[in-house]
Amino acid sequence: MLELLSKHVATLLENARLYHREKDHKHRLQFLLDSQQSLVKETVEVDNFDGITTILGGLFRSSVILFDRFMRALSFTDYEHEDSPLYIGQLAERAREELSNQKGNELITMQDPNNADYNFSLWTVSGGGNLFGYLAIRRSVVEMDEFDCLTVDLARNICSINLLSKSSS
Asked: What is the CATH classification number for the domain harbouring 127?
């Protein structure tokens, strides 16, 4: 009887845990959709990338840089609570070295040249087989959960569309 009761309580606890997890996933997905709408709205209403990097900087609470394919900064957000200034030229040089060493990788992670406690994750921004640029996000933790990865993928797609429209005009 005691064993049956303990299994029942364990099942109730597991169900509660799964319920809260699903509820959290639902809230994060809604937040992701809201973020996507904000990014798309910014792309449609404003003819530059500053709004996109500002929104991403707020979402990740971190610095965000959008580079063109030649590693020239198109837009950046230096997140206000970080303890060291963002040295874009130094980061671009380091990224060029990493890119030449790791050709073909969609994601490159490298240490922040000015702060060993942070890393920069650098994703390619491409479309239709063409490389348009790179999206760099400063992170204190290298691992990103699935929602962060989805957010980055959405941002990359939006940047790709925006870069494509700028290159064809």
From this structure: 3.30.450.40
